[in-house]
Design a protein that fits this description.
Helix content: 10-25%
Number of strands: 5
Number of helices: 1
Order of helices and strands: EEEHEE
Structural class: alpha+beta
Strand order of the largest sheet: 3-2-1-4-5
Shape: globular
Largest sheet: 5 strands, mixed
Radius of gyration: 13 Å
Distance between the termini: 32 Å
Length: about 80
């Protein structure tokens, strides 16, 4: 089983927000606001079919959004 690709929105210790790939050391982009970072991270995540993981200022995961194969899709409520 292969590891799922992830794209993370994380706070930069020197200020602002970074977009990073899971397991990557370098940032895919640096932004002044979290909203800008989320917008770019979502574009990257959709293009790569990866999971978008959004962190808070404390580094803890706030929420996720799947743009690839979701192993636990929501149930159809119809």
């Amino acid at each position: 089983m292969s590891k799922r690709k992830t794209t993370h929105i994380v706070p930069n210790p020197e200020g602002g927000w970074d977009v990073k790939q899971g397991g990557g050391l370098r940032s895919s982009g640096h932004f002044e606001t979290k909203r800008e970072a989320e917008t770019r991270g979502r574009e990257i995540s959709q293009n790569q079919g990866s999971e978008l993981v959004i962190h808070g200022k404390d580094g803890k995961i706030q929420r996720t959004d799947s743009h690839g194969h979701d192993p636990c899709p929501p149930k159809d409520t119809k």
